[in-house]
Amino acid sequence: MTQSKTGALAGIRVVDLSRILGGPYCGQILGDHGADVLKIEPPQGDDTRTWGPPFKDGVASYYFGLNRNKRVMKLDLTTEADRSVLLALLEDADVLVENFKTGTMEKWGLGFDTLSARFPRLVHCRVSGFGADGPLGGLPGYDAAVQAMAGLMSINGEADGDALRVGLPVVDMVTGMNAALGVLLALQERERSGRGQFVEAALYDSGLSLLHPHAANWFMNGKTPVRTGNAHPNIYPYDTVATGTDPIFLAVGNDRQFRILCEYLQVPALADDERYATAGARSVNRVALKAELEARMREMDGKVLADTLVAAGVPCAPVLSVPDALQHPHTVHREMVVEMDGGYRGLGAPVKLSRTPATYRFTPLTEGDQFLPKED
Questions:
Q1: Which is the catalytic residue, given 46, 172, 205, 239?
Q2: Is 272 a catalytic residue?
Q3: Cα 314 versus chain centre, distance
Q4: Domain range 13-210+329-347, its CATH number among 3.40.50.10540, 3.40.50.280, 1.10.472.10, 3.30.460.80
Q5: N or C: lower Cβ tally within 10 Å for the chain?
Q6: Following DSSP, what letter does each residue of 96-158 receive, concatenated?
């Protein structure tokens, strides 16, 4: 087993103490781009090993989706002996990622102040629920709970329905991305100062950061955002619309696109109708416009319509299932499904670099008790 010689982060060594989602996702991003990531789990393993079904060899798919390109060792950090092993590993590390409850690392003598005094170049990244201080400081955070508190659930769902959780752990995942971004910012700054620093990515902050354009709207007009189903609050037609077969999603963002749509549907007069001639007017008169469009589209095949419109310059798409999306020819072309020895399949890295692309070197559960040998 060898390190990537070409990854953008080749030569960067990461100790990943995190578990569940946000922290491990951060570690996987760093590992995909060449970092040598050593994941430290408690003796019983990361909780997500049990989050199934489905399972393979007794380990849940959930764990497999977040822990590629890491090697795994187990330490009981409640013991002094295993904390000594961790400190030895940090001698050669550039980055520490952890998501323990605020105060835990400090209780073990592994807080940032202590570690930075011993390892001044170490970037210490913490994924937390709410940060360490403030009214909610130190409280544990969970994706769905933060979706509720950050206002995300209030704007998700049908207009006449209940608030809904987004159907994937979007807060956890964007927190993992923010953590990876923070690590890269700190590593870049270290090139100038020679010093590491503390990086924190909190679920609460990340959840709030997702509120565009609803926050921007509220800052300007003071009106509480409401649920609009699949429709965009500011743009129309930017919504799911019915056809003669399956629905499609229209994403018309300007007047030119709207005129092309109307011409294709053989209702060119709609583009000149004062109710629909401008983006603002279309948004205000969206209910009537949707009825006009669907009356014409109900005579058409959804897939054919979507393919034809997007080729003509009208942003739109069929509404695909997860299997259909993962097996789409463009998914294959973009290398967004990764296959590795042992039957592993997972999602590919979404960031493409021309000279130092992501590489896939270790499947989840690969064991290791030290960093890989440094390469010249």
A1: 172
A2: no
A3: 27
A4: 3.40.50.10540
A5: C
A6: EEE-PPTTHHHHTT--HHHHHHH-TT-EEEEEESS-SSSTTTT----HHHHHHHTTTGGGSS-
